Please model this.
Amino acid sequence: MKTTIKSFSMIFLALVAVLSLTQCQKEQDMQEMHNYALNQDYGFGGAGIIPNDSGISGTMDFCECLANSFALQELNEIEKQALLFMREEEKLARDVYQYLFDKWNVPVFNNIQRSEERHMEKMLCLIQRYDLQDPVAENNYGEFADEGLQSLYDALITSGSQNLNDAFTVGATIEDVDINDLITLAEGGDIDNEDILAVFTELTKGSRNHLRAFVKNLEQNGSAYTPQYISQDYYDGVINSDRERGGNICAASAECPNYGSGYDGDCPRDGSGTCTQDCTGRQSTANGTGSGFGNGAKKGPKGGPN
Model:
């Protein structure tokens, strides 16, 4: 399992090394492009308001939400390794985007790094729920317990420092990998704990939104992105669809009949938030159905354990 993760990191490192370093940054109206990413891809207001992408209304704590909504199930070794790895993979995304924001002062990196911070918090809730040792612990930005992720971080910030298009490409590549890992883990058959699958579903939605934003920035800056891990069909489905919203994964279990984890969070509700129909049969976006994207995982190396 550890060998698989290290092998992925070496292969991904090689791919990052050949990212284009020769694209010339074009003179464009960058402010218009940044505003598009803020207002269209994220649903942020002009003041930079961050939506609650956890799918929880109000100020309810996400850890409490999981405890109230999902029964605690036995954790197998694959699930354990998946939680630990995804916690650090989300940290890698956050840390790279913070570095790139400091380097280029482009709002899209700052906004997405804040979203990745929330993704990290969700993973921490699962780690604490299952009484695992947090691999992030007190590690500073750019510091990782996993040696492969440490090498990958160093390569990504080097590549993203070349020019702005390379920085956007680094962002798209991170989300490409993240989506593939989450889907592959969810569909592999070794993870069946409902709370884990529900959180992975929400993280996948967020990563698809992030991918859309980076690709949009690349396109508006005269460049393009080619998927390296998810399939071309899956990628096209993501890019040609609208921004997604969180699925209210916790409140739904209590409010909607037969609405457990693994179901989309768009069950019809009335003005008070009460479910207005039985939600039985809703399909999980974690397994690639119900979202319109199908199976997006490619065969071959990936970041998650298997």
